UniProtKB/TrEMBL annotation:
Name listed for the protein in its UniProt record: Protein DETOXIFICATION
Gene Ontology CC: membrane
NCBIfam families on file: matE
Family from the record: Belongs to the multi antimicrobial extrusion (MATE) (TC 2.A.66.1) family.
Primary residence: membrane
Transmembrane segments: 27-52, 64-85, 105-124, 176-198, 204-226, 330-357, 407-427, 433-455
Pfam families hit by this protein: MatE
Alphabetical list of InterPro entries matching this protein: MATE_euk, MATE_fam
Lineage, opening ranks: Eukaryota, Viridiplantae, Streptophyta, Embryophyta, Tracheophyta
Originating species: Cicer arietinum (Chickpea)
Length: 507
């Protein structure tokens, strides 16, 4: 068979062992650095919580409330919107359409700049919102301080999140890991300086997080502009049309960004809902404390499938953009296989280490017992979560986030929520009932996504759609000039500028 690095597979043949191994190397060569980066981001959050705890219980409670609020209303939205870049950038890179790659990054930055305006208003009014919801006034006041000093982080994330997708879509993952490592290494000294030395308290913890993210952005942007300037074409407001080129196509990108955002947020928000529901159980202090430990544990485990999802999205998009549908299918199937292996590993360790794990977080025996009783259920949830998360990445790579958003909505809110509420409160199962609700949601979601990806996906049709997308037909006009002397067909007249070989057509 011909070199599988340069040619697609035959539709009637199964890939060989060497081709599967090659795809595994390609996928994990990208995913391992991204996993390390995600773990570093997780460590940064843990450091912030530790310094809040050092300040006192009130500061810790206020910071925790603010972190939950900002995650729901801000960071989840920005990460979700930025994920709308994945199909466009990955497919554009696969087809060597450098201008679409560059312009899509600029368009996403503009979209996020518009998104942070209403988010900022929510953050500024956190205290009023929380008091209206009946939260403790002293905790709410502390949370509002942390939230106020976190406001610059919104601006930082308008660059950070798109840059991560932009680089990952081009298989650039190790530099992102190194940039994150350098930034996180300075996170502890920053906290010590601002919180301990300068005695800024809660504002100091918030400002340290902002500065750490700012360092990540500077390092990543510096890498793109200095070390990759000959390989990554960044033409800001390029062409005769100036900024109009960037604006033209915002609507089409939004059609990918909004459902991508919903697909991520609908799952992210559900975990926060579990915390709220735990507060209504007969022993709310015990239940909320156990929920906090379990959610931190799931967040840690989520770093691997999240990295795998982002990388398979890039791999599938790259191959579809290059016109290789069966290499894209192989990437998807290999990633799903890896996801199931990770799921079984999570089941195993959560069952084996359930008693010792809880002791790492608390000395409270009732809390440890409650956590240990639920960890096997949480492990089973991960058996569904790993392929579910990976499946969502595949759908983003094929530019079908709407399907993923609908599946997540149905699974988490029309299956998981009724099961959780019914078992926990109606049948009086209590805390375990909430996690059985999550398990039902993950099973429904995973089965639905597997059906769509494995059974219903026509990979040749997806490759044709990718060709249409990367030739500009669906992403707006590329320059502002109109040359009426050029004779082009009706479909190209909708917005074609750059072919896969980089040749330009003025329209």
């Amino acid at each position: 068979m011909e070199d599988n690095k340069d040619h697609d597979f035959f539709s009637h043949k199964f890939p060989t062992t060497s081709q599967v191994v090659e795809e595994l190397k390609e996928l994990w060569g990208m995913a391992l650095p991204i996993t390390a980066m995600n773990m570093l981001v997780f460590v940064r959050a843990v450091v912030s919580v530790l310094f809040l705890g050092r300040l006192g219980s009130l500061e810790l409670a206020g910071g925790a409330l603010s972190i939950g609020f900002t995650n729901i209303t801000g960071y989840s939205v920005l990460v979700g919107l930025a994920s709308g870049l994945e199909p466009v950038c990955s497919q554009a890179f696969g087809s060597k359409n450098w201008e679409l790659l560059s312009l899509s990054l600029q368009r996403m930055v503009l979209i996020l700049l518009m998104a942070i305006v209403p988010i900022s208003l929510l953050w500024i009014n956190l205290e009023r919102i929380m008091l209206f919801m009946g939260q403790d006034s002293s905790i709410t006041e502390m949370a509002s301080i942390y939230c106020f000093y976190s406001l610059p982080d919104l601006l930082t994330n308008t660059l950070l999140q798109p840059l991560r997708v932009f680089l990952r879509s081009q298989k650039v993952t190790k530099p992102m890991m190194y940039c994150s490592l350098v930034a996180v290494v300075f996170h502890v000294p920053l906290n010590y300086l601002l919180v301990v030395v300068m005695e800024l308290g809660v504002p100091g913890v918030a400002m340290a997080s902002v500065l750490t993210n700012m360092n990540m952005v500077v390092l990543m942007a510096g890498y793109v502009c200095i070390f990759r300037k000959n390989e990554m074409m960044l033409r800001w407001g390029c062409g005769n049309g100036g900024l109009m080129i960037v604006y033209d196509g915002l609507g089409q990108l939004m059609k990918l960004a909004v459902p991508s955002c919903l697909m991520i947020c609908l799952e992210w928000w559900w975990y926060e809902i579990v915390t709220v529901m735990a507060g209504y159980l007969p022993n709310p202090t015990l239940a909320v404390a156990a929920t906090g430990i379990l959610i931190q544990t799931t967040s840690m485990m989520y770093t691997v499938p999240m990295a795998l999802a982002g990388c398979v999205s890039a791999r599938v998009g790259n191959e579809l953009g290059a016109g290789k549908p069966y290499k894209a299918k192989l990437a998807a199937m290999v990633a799903l296989g890896c996801a199931f292996v990770m799921g079984f590993i999570n089941v195993a360790w959560t069952v084996i280490l359930r008693y010792g794990w809880a002791a790492l977080f608390t000395n409270d025996e009732p809390v440890k017992a409650l956590v240990a009783s639920v960890m096997p259920i949480m492990g089973l949830c991960e058996l569904g979560n790993c392929p579910q998360t990976t499946g969502c990445g595949i759908l983003r790579g094929t530019a079908r986030p709407v399907i993923g958003a609908n599946i997540n909505l149905g699974s988490f809110y029309f299956v998981g929520t009724p099961v959780a509420v019914g078992l926990a409160f109606w049948f009086k199962i209590g805390f375990s009932g909430l996690w059985f609700g999550l398990l039902s949601a993950q099973v429904a979601c995973a089965l639905s996504l597997l059906y769509v990806v494995v059974v219903r996906t026509d990979w040749e049709a997806e490759a044709l759609k990718a060709e249409k997308l990367t030739r500009g037909v669906e992403m707006g006009n590329w320059n502002g000039s109109k040359n009426k002397d050029k004779m082009i067909d009706d479909e190209e007249n909708k917005g074609l500028l750059v072919y896969g070989n980089g040749n330009k057509i003025d329209i």
